[in-house]
Amino acid sequence: MITYELCLLYRIMPKAELASVVKRTANAIFEKGGIIRKLEHLGTRDMPHKTSIHGLVHHKASYFLIEFNAPPTCIDTLSDEYMRDVDIIRKRIYKKQEVKPFECTLHEDMLPPPYRKSVQELIAQAKKSEKPKFKYNTGLDYYPFQK
């Protein structure tokens, strides 16, 4: 199954109601054959701009992030179900990208340039290459510029 991230903005409500709405949202994922990996509450914040949905104007919202695995066929039905929910102001479902392994080279980058491996390779490459030499193709028996 593919890993998805669901970003939800809920309307402002008391904790008990908010808990029941989050549980209802999670149960919808479970019913479609999904598995929740992480549920994160990002707090209650002002929205970047006012949003009007279901006949109400919202200035603040409770932000939630749900990471889950689900078959790709159920994403459209989940999206449709969340769109009809009156407690959800905004929802976005993203396919989570895999994190590529990263090797830290900070220690090497902090060295002075002559001691860095990449600079040493450039110096060795420059020493290997031959410098162009003057060719005596003038047809004269002597060098006219007095060597």
From TrEMBL:
Pfam families given in the database record? Ribosomal_S6
Per the record, its GO cellular-component terms are: mitochondrial small ribosomal subunit
InterPro entries reported for this sequence: Ribosomal_bS6, Ribosomal_bS6_sf, Transl_elong_EF1B/ribsomal_bS6
Gene Ontology MF terms:
small ribosomal subunit rRNA binding; structural constituent of ribosome
Taxonomically, the superkingdom here is Eukaryota
Q: Which UniProt keywords apply?
A: Ribonucleoprotein, Ribosomal protein
**Record family assignment:** Belongs to the bacterial ribosomal protein bS6 family.
Task: Tell me a GO biological process for this protein.
Answer: translation
Q: Which organism is it from?
A: Tribolium castaneum (Red flour beetle)
What name does the UniProt record give this protein? Small ribosomal subunit protein bS6m
